[in-house]
Structures are given as C-alpha cells and as structure tokens.
Amino acid sequence: MKLTGKKTAPYRYLAPTILLMIVFMVIPICMVIGYSFVDKAVVSQNPQFVGLENYKTIFADNEYIGAISNTIIFVVVSVVAHLILGMLFAMLLNSKYFKSRTKTIARVIYILPWVFTASVVAILWKLMLQPSGIVNYLLSIFPQISRNTEWLSNSSIALAVICFINIWCGYPFYMISILAGLQGISGDLYESAAIDGSTAVKSFLHITIPQLKPILISIAMLDFIWTLQSFNVIWMLTGGGPVNATETLSIYIYKKAFQKVDYSMAATAATILLVVCIFIAVFYVRQQKKVRE
Amino acid sequence: MKLRTIMKKGLAVGLMGIMMVSLAACGDNKEEEKTNAETDTKTEAKADETGSDAKSDVTLKFQQWWGAELPEGYLDDICAKYEEETGVKVELLTAPWADTKTAITAGATNGTIADIISVDGAWLSEFVDMGVLTNVEDAGVDSSLASDIWKVDGTGYVVPVLNFAYPMYVNMDILKEAGVETVPTTWTELKDACKKITDAGKSAFALNLGTTNANGIQNVFMGTGWGSGISLKDESGAYKTKDNAGLASLAEMFKGLYDDGSLYPGMSTLEESEMTSNFAAGNCAFTVASAATMSQFTDINFEATTIPVKDDFKDKSGICYASWAVGISESCENKEEAAKFINYLLGGIDGKDGSASAGLAATMSAFPNSTVAEPDYSKAPKQFQDYYELYKQNYVINEFIGLPNASDVMTSMTNDLTTYLEGKIDIDTLLSNWQGYLDAAGK
User: Fold this and answer.
1) How is chain B split among helix, strand and coil, in percent rounded to 5?
2) E strands within B71-201?
3) What domains can be seen in chain B, in order of their start residue?
4) For labeling, which of B190, B242, B342, B361 is most exposed (least CB within 10 Å)?
5) Does any CB of chain B come closer than 8 Å to the CB of residue A156?
6) Domain limits for position A266
7) Per the domain annotation, does A11 fall within a domain?
8) What is the distance in angstroms between the Cα of B65 and the nearest Cα belonging to chain A?
9) Where does the record place the ABC transmembrane type-1 domain (chain A) (predicted)?
C-alpha cells in the first residue's frame, strides 16, 4: 500500500488530530493512571510499583469517603434542582401568556448567572454572604433571624449554600436547552390532546416530557459530568472547608497533589473519578446514538 | 524575451542575491565573534579586577516568586548589575508563590530544575527529602553574611535573604470608639479590650482558619504563642504538643475570645488576604499580618506592635516570620557560581556591600537576613519604623520551618483548632491530635 495512495488518505487527514489527542490526552491520562500504581510519584526519581496499595489506602481514608459523600450530595442536588428550575423557567418563557418583549427581557435576565465566570460568581456570593454582607443585612429586617449567620463558615450549612450557588449559576443551561426543545414540539399534539379532554398536567406528563426526554437525558448526563468535576467555585468560596465540610472529590484531588504533594494518591483518586466519568460518558454516547437512530 | 527566459534569469539573479547576502552575513558573524571574544576577555579581566573568578559563559537559572511581588524590573536590575560586574548571567524564572513549589517539584523530577531556587519554610523538609537541595556552605555560601541559615539535621540548605515579620495591627479609631484607652499588651488586657469592642458592635480580633492556604495556625495562633515563649517543641527540640501546658493555655485564651464573640466572624473559611483587606477597610480592631502589608493600610489610623503576651511573661517576645530564602539545586552544574550569586545578594561582590539586600528589604517592608545590610527605612511609614525598633529588641521564630509536610500538618491542625473552638472536642483531644500529626509528619 502506497503511503500517499488513496487508501491512506483518510488516515493522513486524521493524523494531525490523532497526534494532538495522543500528546494532550492519551499520554497524560496514561501517566496519571500509571502514577496511581506507584508510591512517591513525581517527587521521586525512582518510584516503586505498589500495585493496588494506593487504592486500598484511599478507600480506608475517612477524608476520601467524606469527599465522596459530599460529591454525591452536591451532584445529585445540583442536577435535580437544575432540571426542575430549568424546566420551570423554560415553560414560563414558552408560555403564551407573556408578550414577546417581556419574554426577551426575562430570557436575558434568567441567562445572566450562566454568563458569569466562576471567579465572578465566587466573589459576588462571597461578598454577599459574608457575615457583614448584604444577605445578612436584608435578613435583619426579620427580627427572628440572626444577623450574624456565617453562611460559608458554618459546617452544617456550608454544603447546602455551595449547592445553592451552583444551582443558581447552572440552571440557565437547562432553561435554554429545554426551551429549544419545547419550541420544537408540534402544537398539533396539544390540540389533539385538548380535544380528547386532556388536562394541562396530563399533557405535560404524556406529551411534553416524552418529547423532551432525549434532551433531558443528554443535558442531565452532561451536567452530571460537569458538576462532578466542579472545582473553581467551591475552591474560591470555601477551599473545601470549614473542616472539609464542602470538600468534593476535585478539591480532595487538588489538595492531595498541590498541598500535600502526594501525587500518587491524587492520581489514584483522579483515576477512580475518571472511571466514573467514562461510565457516564458511555451512557451519554449510547443515548445520543439512540436519539439519532 | 520569452516569459520562461525572464523567469530563468530572474531566478538566477535572485539566487545570486541570496548568496551575496549570506556571504555578507557570514562576514558579519566573524566580526561579531571577534567582538564577542574581545568583550569576553574584557569581562574576564574585569571579573579578575573585582576579585571574582566568575566564568563569563555561565548562565544561572533562578526560580522564584519574588519578581511577581517586587516592582516590575527590580529583580532584573539586580541580576543585570551582577552580570555587569561578574559576567555571569542570571536568568529569572518567575512564577507566583503558589505555583513555585509545583514548578520546582516537577523540575526536580524531569531534570529541568533551576540552579538557584527560592524556598518557603514549609517546603524545606520535603525538598531535602527529595534530594533537591545541596549543602550551601559546601557550595561556597559565606555563612558570616547571613544571620541565619536553615538547616536540616545540621546541614545548611537554604539561606534567607529577607525576613517578613508578623506584627499585630491595631485600629486606633475602633479602640477609641469602644473606650479602650491603651493598646493591650497582655492577654487579659487583650480579652478585655476585645469584649469592649464587641460590645460596641465592632469586630475585634481576626483569626484566619481557612484552609486554602492554612497559615493562620502559624502566623496568628502560634504567632501569639511564640510571643509569650510558648513552643511546639520540648527542651530537646522534639515536637511536643500533648500535655503542653503553654499550648493549652494559648488554645484556651483563643477559646475565650471565641466564646465572647470576639473573633472575626467567618473565621473557619477566612483567608489571610481577606483578613488583611477587612482590616484595611476598618472592619476589625486587631489583626496579625506581615509587615509588608502595612502599605495597604492607607485609610485607617493604625499602630503596629508586638502581639500581647501572657500576663506573667516578662522575657523577650518571639516574632513569627516568613522568608524569601534561596537554595542551590543538587543538580546545578555551577554550584560555586550559584553560591557567589547568593553571597552577592547578601553582601555584594566584596562581602561588604549589603545594598542589594538592603534595597530589597526597604522596597518590600521587610528585614534583611544579611549581616552587612543597612536598609534605609526613612521613607517607610512611621508605624513601620516604630515596629523595626520592637523587632530589634525581640527575636524571630517559626517552628514550622523544616517540619516535614508542613502544609499538610498545618491544614490538619487548623481543622482541629476550628473544631476545638466550636466546642466539638476538648483541649486534651486537640493537643493529642496535633501530636499525632507532628509525629506522623515525614514518615
């Protein structure tokens, strides 16, 4: 087979992309997986192969178990709330009861939280939620509520507050995606249902939801992966504190690598997270394939 | 003439032109080489004149975060002056403090580590364990030029150039408003003052226990302890927190402040930068921060003083400090030249000129570790000049320098201190847990 022949043409076209993917994705991922099987990775020139020892150690680490628990709460609460809020706002914007101009203004306002970068979101909320911030000031109108609530420094409510902020900045993605889906549903379906005596709730459950199902599953999968990897906002707001109360897996990995200089354990935690993400990604790809078919 | 002929002739002329230019360039190179050789001879002669036998073909790489914090070009000027005087080029590799450790660690593993590296006290032990650092005195660093050299097991690895002391800043307007007439000097006075300030509706004392960079346990908590001679170590120099009566009294003093509501709210996620900016905004009466931050406090009426001491304490106070310090990497091929540059930073070419160190100190509101530097603080704020006198009367201390896995240990200690202040564990558990972290460090 000639190297410059027709048969090799597709591979030649793909070669630059494949090369880039190997250099910037495959090799680093393989290196991280490799680090998870050695001790003193990166910091030692002769790290020793330790097999699954790092995996045994990490599952015996209470801090890691705490991080898993926090991550599950953070991800599940965020994804479910995103879905409900996104659906609510999308239906509001798709409703026939508002004028077109009102809808446009509302759409711009609703999408704003998604436009802000993580640093802006973190600074904004940190300023608002600090003990002398505007939230406590506004709450002081109500005599029963203390003006000194430490929203981000109280270990019993910090994770809930972080979830709230993540929900606030993430729902517009759902709203836009669902709105696009809603606009694609034929009005005939609703009209036929109305003739058959269907109520609004029944129409929602038996027409809207089934029609939106592919979109809902896709965005939920994507959001699941993104939220699982969420780092910037949490790091800038609490750094995983107080006393690890908001430490998610990504924060745990960062602390292991860059504070404790334990790259082996950081790589172990990252590899486990990678496996979880791959499972979700495979599910997502299958779902997409099903939609196409 | 045919187009083909024109193109042929044009190509020939073009090629000739390229050849001519190339030849001319070769001639220039020869001239340049000659000029360079002359310059090198002159530089070597100059180096001999100044008593330095530095080689002009040496380039030293200097990894540090200083350039990111100094005024732009300040460090480059020092290096340019050094090159002018010795012929040795110093190439600066500048990264923010937070990235420097990663850069050094990665460089040490893949063989791209710089010749001279800037080291934080919390990294010292790890770098020594990794074999990153060489014995600076063996390399040729003149120990008489430095007041202090950081050692591990008796071997000197790192030389501080600047020391940043941590005074207690006092907002005098808040004190006046709360009816506190004098700056507190003892723990009882501090507690009473904090109570009055809190009762007046103001925030009193800031303790940063955020763990993004867990240094509140060092700068504020232990800074207060060191001021009263309280130590993390026993007389033999081993870390001893369990049954340490001094530490227990220190923790109980802070617990008292917490229970009185005198600690700045949000302490468990409060970071050093937030603490400083809140003090600068006039939101807090007392804060412990680096003397270098003093220039930020332009809009408030403040004093800088030593931290109040235990009521019965009459001795000299220990002042918490952090440093800009340098070491030489083990893989450096020009260790002798690297040592000469460090000597230059401390005492100039002849070991008597501390101007580089003094200039850095005055620029950064820091104190030189050089024994020959005489910084001119005449342009510094009055508060800094007053504090300099207190600094000279006392001594600097930081027991976390050289502690294995210092960052990790400080994070764990911080988390436990938060839990203790919130009343979830007792003092014995706190000190016992700390002992566990310190014993396990480095194993």
Assistant:
1) 50, 15, 35
2) 89-94, 116-119, 150-152, 155-165, 168-171
3) 59-164+322-368 (3.40.190.10), 168-305+404-440 (3.40.190.10)
4) B242
5) no
6) 65-292
7) no
8) 16
9) 68-284
Beta strands B155-165; B367-368: pairing state: antiparallel
A58-95 pLDDT, tens digit each: 999 999 999 999 999 999 999 999 999 999 999 999 88
Residue B285 φ then ψ, to 5° = -80, -40
A44 in reach of chain B (CB within 8 A): yes
CA distance B414 to A257: 19
- The answer to whether the Cβ–Cβ distance between B211 and A239 falls below 8 Å is yes
Q: How many domains does chain A have?
A: 1
| Mean pLDDT on B85-109 | 89
Judge whether A284 lies within some domain. Answer: yes
The answer to whether residue A62 neighbours chain B at the CB level (below 8 Å) is: no
Band (pLDDT 50/70/90 cuts) for residue B56 is: low
CB-based contact, A42 to chain B, within 8 Å: yes
Considering all CA atoms of chain A, what is the largest pairwise distance in Å, rounded to the nearest integer? 84
B269-286 mean pLDDT: 90
Exposed e or buried b per residue across A168-196, where buried means at least 16 C-beta atoms within 10 angstroms of its C-beta:
bbbbbbbbbbbbebbeeeeeebbeebeee
Which residue of chain A is at minimal alpha-carbon distance from B283?
A132
How many Å apart are CA B92 and CA B83, to the nearest integer?
13
The whole-angstrom distance between A89's CA and the closest CA on chain B is 34
Nearest CB to A148: which of B106, B265, B270?
Answer: B265
The pLDDT of residue B6 is above 80: no
CB contact under 8 A, A238 and B269: yes
Tell me the shortest Cα–Cα distance from B411 to chain A, in angstroms.
9
Out of B269, B418, B419, name the one closest to residue A239 (CB).
B269
Write the pLDDT tens digit of every residue in B130-146.
889 999 999 999 999 99
Contact A259 B411 (CB under 8 A): yes
The CATH number assigned to the domain holding A141 equals 1.10.3720.10
Distance CA B223, CA B317 (A): 10
Q: Using CA atoms, how far apart are residues A94 and A103, in angstroms rounded to an integer?
A: 8
Backbone angles phi, psi at B102, to 5 degrees: -65, -40
Asked whether residue A58 is domain-assigned, the answer is no
DSSP B43-86: HHHHHHHTT----TT-EEEEEESHHHHSSTTHHHHHHHHHHHHH
**Is it true that the peptide bond before A242 is cis, omega within 30 degrees of 0?**
yes
| CB–CB contact A43 B126 (8 Å) | yes
Per the domain annotation, does A134 fall within a domain? yes
Say what percent of chain B tops pLDDT 70.
87
Interface pTM (ipTM) of the complex? 0.81
Give kind and range of the element (H or E) at residue A91.
Answer: helix A62-94
List the single residue in A with minimal CA-CA distance to B406: A260
Residues B217-244: tens digit of each pLDDT: 999 999 999 999 999 999 898 999 999 9
Give the span between the Cα atoms of A237 and A209, in whole angstroms. 36
B98: nearest CA in chain A? A258
